[in-house]
Amino acid sequence: MSVGATKTVCVTGASGFIASWIVKFLLHKGYTVKASVRDPNDSKKVQHLLGLDGAKERLHLMKANLLEEGSFDSLVDGCEGVFHTASPFYHDVKDPQAELIDPALKGTLNVLGSCAKTSSVKRIVLTSSIAAVAYNGQPRTPEVVVDETWWSDPEVCRQMQMWYVLSKTLAEDAAWKFVKEKGIAMVTINPAMVIGPLLQPTLNTSAASILNLINGAETYPNSTFGWINVKDVAHAHILAFENPSASGRYCLVERIVHYSDFVKILRELYPTYKLPEKCADDKPFVPTYQVSKERAKSLGVEFTPLEVGIKETVESLKEKKFFQPPSAI
Ligand SMILES: NC(=O)c1ccc[n+]([C@@H]2O[C@H](COP(=O)([O-])OP(=O)(O)OC[C@H]3O[C@@H](n4cnc5c(N)ncnc54)[C@H](OP(=O)(O)O)[C@@H]3O)[C@@H](O)[C@H]2O)c1
Fold first, then answer.
1. Ligand 1: which of 21, 85, 102 to mutate, judged by most atoms within 8 Å of the beta carbon?
2. Which of 22, 87, 225, 228 has the most ligand 1 atoms within 8 A of CB, as the residue to mutate?
3. pLDDT tens-place string over residues 69-103
4. Cα separations in angstroms, 164 against 38, 105, 156, 211, 254
5. Full-model pTM
6. How far is the CA of 19 from the centre of ligand 1 (A)?
């Protein structure tokens, strides 16, 4: 019998890119999964979940909103594990406080508050981000190794107007303070940009960053990002719940590359595609840096090479008709 066969867990924001994979793997392992979505009647958001193996028998969709107090009480009640993944991730925001910071920060405390009301919850796995780790104003160069002891600085985030980064930093910080005070066990997963196949029919922000490159962009950004495969991220969440010795934070970054090198990989994989040739500015390239894999490896995470994730994403974008390759036009 698999580990999850007798256990009930819940996943918040289950319709999202990462959460959909967590739900898929949990069902595969035999767990009973209570999954929250904002609108269970929105077939675009739930159809792919209902079609997962095991969903008919063991998936229970429930309605919950991060901004409604007590909204998650009935979701977490009776669950041994809580995977809190719901949080807005997009860049085109008009009101950062209302659109990003409140749902991330108040929403996380709302979910944790529900956990504190029930004795069933043994561990929370919070989907945080490398955003809450790596932005503290310290220079990042190829020799610098970022690890789980790093924390992003809210003041730096505000100055740079990095609102998503700020939202994740404030949310994770508040979560740790809350669980320490209440004596609740929590582990955080801190992934970099997540890529790989989409289960959901809608376009998520990290997959959109690849779509932009293959969809006729003239330039690539002068930016350097870490990347990680969505299946590795989902597995890490489950390992963090199942492994009794898991604790603290786990950064997940397979590789850090400048966009120029990211485009190079795309060009090798898809030589016939029109890909950006030039950088968006004439400044020196933003340097790479390293992120430690030690803790993630100790958890049992195996890292899928970046090339595989890029290919999976492009193939998925084609299959879901977000992109038509040149030969098919
Ligand atoms: N993708 C990445 O590169 C990446 C990297 C590091 C960390 N993360 C973190 O991973 C998590 C999931 O990200 P994702 O990329 O999978 O994004 P996604 O596909 O956009 O999913 C976000 C989820 O959050 C839910 N949500 C947003 N606002 C909500 C609200 N007010 N109430 C309830 N649910 C709400 C969305 O629900 P609806 O479907 O109803 O909109 C959606 O299910 C987030 O915590 C994000 O910060 C993502």
1. 85
2. 87
3. 999 999 999 999 999 999 999 988 999 999 999 99
4. 20, 11, 13, 20, 21
5. 0.97
6. 8
